[in-house]
Amino acid sequence: MSTHTVLQFSPSKSILKLATTPPTRKIQPSPEKQGLPCTTVIVPRGWAGAATEAGSPVKKKKPGKDNSVLDVQFEIQLGQPNQGLTESLTVSKRVELSYSLVEGGKPTTPPHGDFSELLRLFPTTFAAEVAPPYVIIRVRTLPPKPWPFTVGGLLLWLTTDELEHCFDPGKVGKGKKMLEHIDLQRKEEFSEGILKEAIAIFQALQIKIRDIMWSPGFWRITVPDSTDWKVLPSWIAHQVCFYKFRSEDPDPDPSALRSKIPQGVEYDDTLYAATPNALLRPGIMVSSSIRQITRDGKTEEAFKTTTSGMLVVNRYGQPFITVASHGFEDDNLVYHPNPTKGSVIGRVVDRLSGTDISIVKLNSGLRYVNETFSSKDGLGGIQMSGISPGYPPHLRAYDPITMDNPFSGFCEGLVLGTGAILPEEGDRDYVRHQWLIFDNGSEPIDGSCGSPFLDSDGRVVGLFRFKKINSDQCWGVSATELRNFGYDICGGEQEF
Questions:
Q1: Is residue 201 classed as helix, strand or coil in its secondary structure?
Q2: The Cα angle at residue 29 between residues 27 and 34, in degrees rounded to 5
Q3: Distances (CA, A) of 361 to 72, 94, 166, 308, 364
Q4: Range among 41-55, 58-72, 365-379 rated most confident
Q5: pLDDT over 50 (residue 53)
Q6: What is the rounded CA–CA span in Å between residue 257 and residue 326?
């Protein structure tokens, strides 16, 4: 057994409340209340940097609102049951070790193949493996929940099963190796140029793919059910290609995303536009007008609830905000927070084909600012500082992201990959997307559609689009798509 130092960091609640500090939400959504606030760092005693906040891995990995402080430090014999460690892990979103399992956006294994820290992290552990995007830790008895979201930068999967795999990428193609002049394994960085070349392969093969995503080490592609496996490329740019049929991986039906909130779940339906000159911001609830629908054989009134997006300007400098297209009816009316509690605050004036992004002109007198709410635990709001290009070196797989909306509150996640959806409408060959996962407690993330998600520098990476069926994996449309339609992010505050 070896002696290790445990350092637990938690968010500071001693932020100076300056005049410019954004307000907190009037209602804190349930998932934010359930969110684990801390980071636990476990390193060998005497490890360089272990004794200081500045030297800790948490200071280098925390996204956005980083004002964490060291509040617990103690030593353990790693591998021996320790109540202090157990308590730290049950309040920690992240666990950092003396090494990272992600280097330069690519998953890796522990140095020299030494899995001892992973094998001794939880009691009764009998195996540990790196299976990107997860690190799998197999235990005889599951530890008490909640569990950390990540360990060493990879998603944590705890199981008592000796063989269970937590991620099904699909089936490997049986066709030729393609783009062998590009080496994503050792040399080149992923780029839009490489994405275009990969898409062109399937166009040349006359295979109408629905989407294509790249994560370090593999491609993930959805193809028509009738596709012959023998013609599907087995490797592209030295990365293995996994495929799923469309019937195996259906997308959610946007028309089904109605206002049906699970009982007992709190969400923020505050009317923030209560005064003529109200200052609105990304992450407030917006809704469609009421319509009649049939559910379980009965006719009822319903409306769609989604999330307000970012403040943008067109090429003439006129201000607008973004919303999720599928969240609104053909009358183009935008209600806040909903048609039963609030009123119309604007109208959809442009729908960006293939992106699920719509552009809204707010009512005269309303103000909007590209800054998120402050968090209840003392974290200040994030000022949106631009649009992320969405490719290395600006954005890599396993980079942290944040999102703040009326359904999840402030939540954190990871980028799993980047790629595109090939739309069936409009004149775009492809629409760039990111492949994501968020730590959202046990609550559904439906309603987050339209919410901006940000990188650690406050740049908008994209706008949340949907969560995959029967999966924690999510997709977001890249914010760079706005520029293809003549819109760009707007700094500061704007009055309509």
A1: helix
A2: 130
A3: 49, 40, 44, 12, 9
A4: 365-379
A5: no
A6: 9
Question: Given this model, what pLDDT does residue 296 score?
Answer: 82
Backbone CA torsion sign across 221, 226, 229, 231: negative
Contact yes or no for 223/245 (Cβ under 8 A)? yes
- Distance separating alpha carbons of residues 14 and 4, to the nearest angstrom: 30
pLDDT tens for residues 457-467?
Answer: 999 999 999 88
Query: What length is written for the chain?
Result: 496
Residue 301: strand pairing partners: 292
3-state helix, strand, coil in the chain (%, to 5): 10, 40, 50
Of 413, 494, 396, the closest CA to residue 452 belongs to 413
Three-state secondary-structure class, residue 424 = coil
Q: For 486, which DSSP code?
A: T
**Tokens representing residue 110 in the block:** 């522990």
DSSP letter at 479? G
Give the residue-averaged pLDDT of 287-306.
Answer: 89
Reading the block at residue 83, the tokens are 């109540």
Tokens of 372: 């998120």
The arithmetic mean of pLDDT across residues 99-108, rounded, is 94
| 123-156 pLDDT, tens digit each | 899 999 999 999 999 999 999 888 999 999 999 9
Put simply, whether the predicted model's pTM sits higher than 0.70 gets the answer: yes
Buried b / exposed e along 113-149 (16+ C-beta atoms within 10 A): eebebbbbbbeebeebebebbbbbbbbeeebeebbbb
Q: What string of DSSP letters covers 343-395?
A: EEEEEEEEEETTTTEEEEEEPTT-EEESBPPBPTTSPPP-B---B---STTTS
Q: Which of 57, 77, 61 is nearest to 7 (CA)?
A: 57
Dist. CA 121–CA 79, nearest whole Å? 7
